[in-house]
């Protein structure tokens, strides 16, 4: 069973896994860690039921690729793997497939 299946976000929270940073350029040049920059793209792995009060569903679904803000989110470590927890309203957008 996957680690994130053991963790259920509450309310309008979204659990994401950041995509890995590119370590090699298209030309084949290896990039040092410091110059890679922060990855702002992630894949949604779990979503909460929606905000409390009147339940407003979360705007993303599991498996969608989303754009994250540069700062924010709460780091969650599940089975030695890093995930991040964001509020639905903090996610900047999603990529159309």
Automatic annotation (TrEMBL):
Assembly notes: Homoheptamer arranged in a ring structure. 2 heptameric Hsp10 rings interact with a Hsp60 tetradecamer in the structure of a back-to-back double heptameric ring to form the symmetrical football complex.
Gene3D superfamilies tied to this protein: GroES chaperonin (2.30.33.40)
Entry's family note: Belongs to the GroES chaperonin family.
An MF annotation (GO) of this entry: protein-folding chaperone binding
Matching Pfam families: Cpn10
Keywords linked to the UniProt accession: Chaperone
Protein name in UniProt: 10 kDa heat shock protein, mitochondrial
Keyword Chaperone: yes
Transmembrane stretches, start-end: none
GO cellular component terms, A-Z: mitochondrial matrix
Organism: Cyprinodon variegatus (Sheepshead minnow)
Coiled-coil intervals, chain numbering: none
């Amino acid at each position: 069973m996957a680690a994130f299946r053991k963790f259920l976000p509450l309310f309008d929270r979204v659990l994401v896994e950041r995509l890995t940073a590119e370590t090699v350029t298209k030309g084949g040049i290896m990039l040092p860690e410091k110059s890679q920059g922060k990855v702002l793209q992630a894949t949604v792995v779990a979503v909460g039921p929606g905000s409390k009060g009147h339940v407003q569903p979360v705007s993303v679904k599991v498996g969608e690729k989303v754009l994250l803000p540069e700062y924010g989110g709460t780091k969650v470590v599940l089975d030695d793997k890093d995930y991040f927890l964001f509020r639905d309203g903090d996610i900047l957008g999603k990529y159309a497939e």
